[in-house]
Amino acid sequence: MVPVTFLTLTLVSDRAIGVEPPDSISVFQQDYCLDCHQGPDAEAGLDLETLSADLDDQEAFARWVRVVDRVRDGEMPPEDYGAADPDDAKRFLKQASRWLADHQTRQDDSLGRVRGRRLTNRQLEKTLQDLLVIRTPLAPLMSGEPRLHGYVGIADAQPMSPYQLQTHLDVVDVALDAAFRKVSRTEPLLERQWDAAGIARKNPRRRCREPEMRQGRAVVWSCNMPFYGRMEATRVPRSGWYDIRFTASAVKPPSEGGVWCTVRRGECVSNSPLMTWIGSFEAESEPRTLEYRAWIPKGEKLEIRPNDSTLKRARFAGGQVGTGEGEPQNVPGLALSELSMREVQPAGSAADTAAVLFGDLAIAKHGRDGVVSFQVDPSATRQQLSDQLVRFAQLAFRRDIEPDRLVGFQQMLSQQLDEGVPAVDALRATYRAVLCSPRFLYFSEPVGRLDDFAIASRLSYFLCQSMPDQELLEAARRGQLHNPQTLIRQAQRLLDTPRGRSFMSDFADQWLELDQITDTEPDRRRFSEFDPIVQDAMLAETRAFLNQLLKDNAPVQQIVAADFTFLNSRLARYYGIDDVAGDQLRLVHLPDDSVRGGLMAHGSVLKVTANGTDTSPVLRGVWLCDRILGTPIPPPPSNVPAIEPDTRGSTSIREMLIRHEEDPNCAGCHRKIDAAGFALESFDASGQFRTRYERGNSRNKGPAVDPSGTLPGGDEFDDFTEFRHLVSHEDHRLAENLADHWITYGTGQRVRFADRARVESIVQRTADSQYAINDLLMAVITSPLFLEK
């Protein structure tokens, strides 16, 4: 096998090669490749005689990269053909790699590595919220985003259609309406409080789905009935953020543990069945007070109920519940003794929003009964209004801009005033134009080295998914962000802010596809212990785990082989882990023989890599190779049919996949895929550990699971634990993979062939700390790949 270092060394050369491939490539192909890869029946559909040398053809470029990679990894020529002469292979890799890398580098010199890139939906929502000091949800108003390489922020996959432009305009209008309404508001924030009778059914003889009064408390029983536990009294008269506070206790709890319940919101009627998650808790015999904060749209109400799928469920006839009907059934329940809701403004006060919209301009309000008009003090000059417009535009565009570059907006403001439009309305209309400008929606990144303001934006959107704060902008204004130590200090500071503390969670939503966890629903007949409470705890486990690794600057191998995780009592019971009490997530040290250490055994990962009914070693294997193990799998060759190779006589998934390794068209990739896929067969589609496959609706009564396999390097393993141990020692590859994904997520461009040497340099900088995760993140942030367009 040709060492990887040969490829790395070739990429640092700056000597340009012509467009045509060097002669050494043709010689190598003639000597070692054309016997198999020639003509219409060429193996793997790769006919090297007709493979285009036009590297502007993306498909041709990808094929050339695949050729280089397979020679580098020793996969080509195949073992049964005979190994290539090492000197010939070195020469081929050196020349071919330089040819490919120099082509991309020449393109970057003129166009930049990253093409025009705009804000994602989440970035747009958070930017408008932070800019206007509001927290109105905006993402639900936006159209879906295409994913490329698993990410929504890739520049090459960000179209802008007339429909999307109209959607953007609508979102801007909603955001501005919320901001101006917040400033003009005169009515007090809503505050309500109820005792148990206030949230229970009003007519004791009426059958309904509201709580019933029992010994002075409002009680809801464990039941499958939709919307049971809804409380009509909590219906909100206007959309807003609300602090919810209630005192709860368990009724007839199980012998071990309490009664796990959910808090959700919705209209709670059959023609609007969707319920939105707020939180979950474990009610115990002793009452305790719980608090949540949630956005609740106008007309929606709360539903609080037992929702643990392992609890015994009551049965009620006719789809409604009568008073006392739950009592004889001896099922667990939830009792509420009081509940309050208080409207809040979590982003900041109205004065904070007014400071953004009007600056030092004096504002006069007029109105009553919640209906108000307000105006800028008539003594304000046009120059003062124009100065305020410039301040707003500089905030929105995330950089200092000379006023003469904003002439178009200033003329629009003047025209509005000339037409007699009130100053408030004229400013709002001009702000609307500013927020629809490409300078707001797109990243302003010059070709080559980024300027300080572009660095500030790239860093802030990478770590916080939103615009730079004032301290970061001030550092950019002073020209300090080209200093690596200053950049690291700013990055660490951002990670410690409330916005930055969501970095690993936001990243994992795309890296691990956690934002798609609700796309499938495990079959409840086969996976009866799975429920929304478990799913929420799985997500919380993964997010807390990743945050802890970053906080501890842990070695990268802990991503796959940590000796701890985060659990509450419900998830611990689901995993079969003892001695974990309470509904608060806490760090739990795992015994040496536990299968749950590391991301590969997290229920969230196992669920998103299954379809809700069964598992596929191929799908899980490909996902694991690409997302965690750092061995991306290319698409199958075009001449390989979608069906399996000859599987006559196969009796198991394993035997079917072994056929792949016997097919030369499939073997190269399946040696990598199948090992990971077989190891994860130890976990079912709902994330629980198993030793046997399911048969029908019966658990653990099918054929035995065989999680053994052989890694591409020849190491064998008997089970998932041994597999995890082996891959944890591939820490250089794990670090390289994490750096790859951070660069893709943070720059809007995946790591390409010409970037490989730079990634290798990033990873090598952290080798002495065992590729510590925070060190690796800082190495990415201070790298040329991150600091250049």
Alpha carbon gyration radius: 30 Å
How much of the sequence lies in strands comes to: 5-15%
Q: What coarse outline follows from CA principal-axis ratios?
A: flat
**Number of alpha- plus pi-helical segments:** 28
Low-confidence stretches: 1-18, 642-650
- Please describe the biggest sheet, giving its number of strands, its sense, and whether it closes into a barrel: 6 strands, antiparallel
Helix content: 40-55%
Structural class given helices, strands, pairing?
Answer: alpha+beta
Number of strands: 16
Report, as a whole number of angstroms, the end-to-end distance. Answer: 35 Å
- Average pLDDT, rounded to a whole number, is 89
Notes on the protein architecture:
This protein is of the alpha+beta class and 789 residues long. Among the domains are: 4-111, no CATH class; 191-344, Galactose-binding domain-like (Jelly Rolls, Sandwich); 509-729, no CATH class; 732-787. The chain has 28 helices and 16 strands. Strands 1, 2, 3, 5, 8 and 10 form a six-stranded antiparallel beta sheet that branches. Helix 6 (162-184) packs antiparallel against helix 11 (423-435). It is flat and about 90 Å long. Mean pLDDT is 89; it is low at 1-18 and 642-650. InterPro entries: Cyt_c_Planctomycete-type, DUF1585, DUF1587, DUF1588, DUF1592, DUF1595. This is Planctomycete cytochrome C.
